[in-house]
Write a structure and sequence with these properties.
GO biological process, one term: carbohydrate metabolic process
CATH architecture of one domain: Alpha-Beta Complex
Enzyme class: hydrolase
Keywords: Glycoprotein, Glycosidase, Hydrolase, Signal
Number of strands: 23
CATH superfamily of one domain: Oligo-1,6-glucosidase, Domain 2
Bound molecules: 2-acetamido-2-deoxy-beta-D-glucopyranose
Strand content: 15-25%
Largest sheet: 8 strands, parallel
Radius of gyration: 25 Å
Strand order of the largest sheet: 13-12-11-5-2-1-15-14
GO molecular function: alpha-1,4-glucosidase activity
CATH class of one domain: Alpha Beta
Protein name: alpha-glucosidase
Number of helices: 16
Structural class: alpha/beta
Length: 583
């Protein structure tokens, strides 16, 4: 029997005296523009966040991660930064930020910031000086000469065929400098040149600036877009990318090309390790373990390299496999495979993480269906490591419907297509948070909000779900409490697809109760027999009961028959400690 325990998922051992808080943590992503508006201008802000910290403390989250709050013209809502050390006025002031930090500290909440180094805004002082060829800034960005157009030799076209993530050429001509600059995203977001050591130093300085303010880590945006191919290896030119052959793609579409020169370059990993050294220095200096999260949509072996190895500490790369591999139709086997995939590829001793959504993706309740809100929240919380929750997932917020007229996302506006724009739009996942059933969902006292509030706010909101006997919110909070139990914090993992529609996730730690999460994906009741989970003791009690379960918290059941209501997600714990020999 002890064999199962050898299939140990090693959780990183505690080092030094520092509390490695993030090795089992709930990190809550706040999209500041849509969380809480404190001054009635229809736009969320820092003081709004501060006012809601007690809500987050009450749920039991460990840290908040803030999407960008820095000075920006907001062509891409803060992912285009003018000055990395200033706060966007529509979000507040540095004083407001300091107040947020102080309040968070008082409540024992940590703060993680977005660190958007793929590019600056084009109104950044660095960029303006670069267009003027100021010797200190001339090489801060990726500049290249145009290529004569074969049909019109007087016209210098873009240097090569590269396409922006937001469609069309990734190159924009700058008249002042007489050259093209690279922008992998919007025109107003020139890419920084990370082959320039001064740029790297500059960005390290930004990191130290925020660490000095006491933040507990960073999330690096689009990290795999940081480096482009080194032109020194291509006769001083940036070579064309090969065609992908994607059906239906036109030369203006990002998926028209195979991005071998603009993504996933080897230098990317080293910069991640280098930045982690700075975080580790502050871990020691402030006796507060600093986390680095990295975002990269890439294949699994590439993603795992961000974790680092024996010689270099790395980051926690976001696990997007739930979002990319699972749908509302996935069965128990599909879910088990998605979990196993991450756990088996992750290097030993590293910390796993589970992501159900973010500001770039359809919301959990829309992607997986409202029926599966408890299922996906429970999985993210009960599996080992870090739970990332995007604001609203805890109450099952769905995507809002945003008309073409109200559309704000540049990725959608750039389609210039009033019919199909919604396929590219990230606005539906960014609508304001639902606090209660009052006007603007309690998000703002203003006459309008930057994006319209989703129309189901009167039934899906914090106030209603807090008052209800059972709700997604109540279940979420119960499972956060379960995450603190020793077996869930640091125990071993066993995942079972018991049949097409039932999945069980057991967590064991010798000397402690076993915790098992059980899920019924089906729309009918299923009597579940957990006897095949041998190390699970016979007598169990309900620790957390999803919105659709008949069983209540505190109910006693035996492992041979657990009656699972349709779409029920349930957490049980054993009344005996692990791991007595099975009878
Ligand atoms: C650092 O923090 C840990 C955990 O919070 C505490 O136990 C330890 O005493 C602290 N060490 C120092 C040097 O302050
Ligand atoms: C920045 O780019 C935007 C278009 O995205 C343009 O309207 C604006 O004039 C540019 N600003 C500068 C300083 O180049
Ligand atoms: C990138 O690194 C990998 C793994 O170390 C290596 O196999 C590969 O050849 C490198 N690629 C380039 C273009 O240097
Ligand atoms: C990695 O991080 C740990 C914990 O902060 C630290 O003790 C260790 O020295 C670091 N390792 C390296 C190679 O920097
Ligand atoms: C699943 O999602 C698809 C695509 O979003 C949708 O058309 C379908 O109705 C959903 N099915 C269920 C059972 O929710
Ligand atoms: C993956 C990704 O797109 N990351 C960010 C890099 O910058 C763009 C443009 O500013 C952001 O929208 C992305 O979120």
């Amino acid at each position: 029997m002890r064999k199962i325990l050898l299939l140990v998922i090693a959780t990183a051992a505690a080092v030094s005296g520092v509390d490695e808080w993030w090795h089992s943590a709930v990190i809550y992503q706040i999209y500041p523009r849509s969380f809480k508006d404190s001054n009635g201008d229809g736009i969320g802000d820092i003081n709004g966040i501060t006012s809601k910290l007690p809500y987050l403390k009450d749920i039991g989250v460990d840290a908040i991660w803030l999407s960008p709050i820095f000075l920006s013209p907001m062509f891409d809502f803060g992912y285009d930064i003018t000055d990395y050390k200033k706060i966007a006025p529509e979000y507040g002031t540095m004083e407001d930020f300091n107040k947020l930090m102080a309040e968070a500290k008082k409540l024992g909440l940590r703060v993680v910031l977005d660190y958007v180094i793929n590019h600056t805004s084009n109104d950044s002082e660095w960029f303006i000086k670069s267009t003027q060829r100021d010797p200190n800034y001339a090489d801060y960005y990726i500049w290249a000469h145009g290529k004569p157009d074969p049909k019109n030799p007087d016209y210098l076209g873009p240097p090569n065929n590269w396409v922006s993530v937001f469609r069309k050429s990734a190159w924009e001509y700058n008249v002042q400098r007489g050259q093209y600059y690279l922008h992998q995203f919007a025109v107003g977001q020139p890419d920084l040149n990370f082959r320039n050591a001064k740029v790297v130093e500059e960005m390290k300085d930004v990191l130290r600036f925020w660490l000095e303010k006491g933040v507990s880590g960073i999330r690096i945006d689009a990290v795999n877009h940081l480096y482009e191919v080194d032109p020194a290896n291509h006769d001083g030119h940036y070579p064309d990318e090969p065609l992908s052959g994607a059906p239906g793609a036109t030369p203006e579409d990002y998926n028209y090309l195979n991005h071998i020169y603009t993504k996933d370059q080897n230098e990317t990993y080293n910069i991640v390790y280098d930045l982690k050294v700075i975080l580790d220095q502050y871990t020691e200096k402030q006796n507060d373990s600093k986390i680095m999260l990295t975002e990269a949509y890439a294949d699994l072996p590439k993603i795992m390299r961000y974790y680092g190895d024996k010689n270099r500490n790395g980051s926690v790369p976001f696990n997007f496999f739930y979002m990319t591999e699972l749908t509302n139709k996935s069965n128990a086997r599909d879910i088990k495979m998605a979990i196993d995939k991450w756990m088996t590829h992750m290097p030993a001793g590293k910390v796993a993480n589970w992501v159900n959504g973010n500001h770039d993706q359809s919301r959990l309740a829309s992607k997986f269906g409202v029926d599966r809100v408890d299922v996906m929240n429970m999985l993210a919380l009960i599996l080992p490591g870090i739970t990332i929750t995007y604001q609203g997932e805890e109450i099952g917020m769905t995507d809002g419907h945003i008309s073409w007229k109200d559309t704000k996302d540049p990725q959608a506006c750039n389609t210039e297509d009033p019919v199909n724009y919604y396929k590219s739009s990230r606005d539906p996942a960014r609508t304001p948070f639902h606090w209660d059933a009052t006007a603007n969902a309690g998000f703002s006292t203003g006459s309008s909000t930057w994006l319209p509030v989703a129309d189901n706010y009167q039934t899906v909101n914090v106030a209603v779900e807090k008052a209800a006997a059972k709700s997604h919110f109540k279940f979420y909070k119960e499972v956060v409490a379960v995450k603190r139990l020793p077996a869930v914090r640091s125990g071993d993992l066993e995942v079972r697809a018991l049949c097409e529609n039932v999945i069980a996730v057991a967590r064991y730690l010798p000397g402690h109760p076993v915790v098992v999460g059980v899920i019924n994906l089906f729309d009918a009741e299923i009597p579940v027999d957990l006897n095949s989970i041998h190390l699970l003791p016979r007598d169990l009690q309900v620790e957390a009961s999803g919105a659709y379960c008949k069983l209540e918290k505190g109910d006693k059941v035996q492992k041979g028959k657990v009656t699972m209501s349709p779409h029920c997600a349930l957490v049980l714990s054993s009344t005996q400690n692990c791991c007595a020999a099975p009878k």
